[in-house]
Amino acid sequence: KEVCEKVVRILNMVLESCQDKLSRTLTNSLPDLSSRMLAKGLISHSVKESGGFDQIMQEFQSGWGFSDSVYDLEEQCFRFLDTLCDMRGAPAKAAKRLEKDWSKEVEKQLTDITFLRRQKMYKK
User: Fold this and answer.
1) How far apart are CA 113 and CA 84, in angstroms?
2) Is 59 in contact with 44 (CB distance < 8 Å)?
3) How far is CA 51 from the centre of its chain?
4) How many CB atoms lie within 10 A of CB 64?
5) Is the predicted pLDDT of residue 119 greater than 60, yes or no?
6) Half-sphere exposure (CA, 13 Å, Cβ side) for 42?
7) Smallest Cα–Cα separation from 93: which of 103, 81, 104, 105?
8) What is the phi-psi region of residue 47: left when phi exceeds 0, alpha when psi lies from -120 to 50, beta otherwise?
9) Are 62 and 37 in contact (CB under 8 A)?
10) 115-122: long-range contacts (C-beta < 8 A, 24 or more apart)?
11) Phi, psi of 43 (to 5 degrees)
12) For the segment 36-53, what is each residue's pLDDT rounded down to a tens digit?
């Protein structure tokens, strides 16, 4: 559980560092983003219906707090990255960058963990 909490802090830090750029990239695609995230179980119906970018991301990130394994965190991250890749264009590029940044930072701070390095679950 303690390792999960450390990974969540790192994931949040990386996501916050690119939040503005990600927000600009996805602003015109919020209905598509929220529909896809709902379909993948990453957000609730109410957030899909009424949420802006900040609410969508807040709900997605809050789900990490219920993870009890690094594997579960990876699964949630891969579902999010898959969502972005399915949208194509700039969101797909953002997914590739975010995956790289998440992986690099987790492995840098927690040297005994390999994160997001198994076979990709999303389209390249």
Assistant:
1) 25
2) yes
3) 17
4) 19
5) no
6) 25
7) 81
8) alpha
9) no
10) 115/7, 115/70, 115/74, 116/74, 116/77, 116/78, 118/74, 120/78, 121/78, 121/79, 121/81, 121/82, 122/78, 122/81, 122/82, 122/84, 122/85, 122/86, 122/95
11) -140, 165
12) 999 999 999 999 998 799
Return the exposure string of 67-76: e unless at least 16 CB atoms fall within 10 Å of the residue's CB, then b: beebeebbeb
- CA atoms of 91 and 88, how far apart (whole Å): 6
Task: Tell me: pLDDT of 71 over 90.
Answer: yes
DSSP per residue, 79-115: HHHHHHHHT-HHHHHHHHHHHHHHHHHHHHHSTT---
Residue type at position 4: C
CA distance 10 to 101: 10
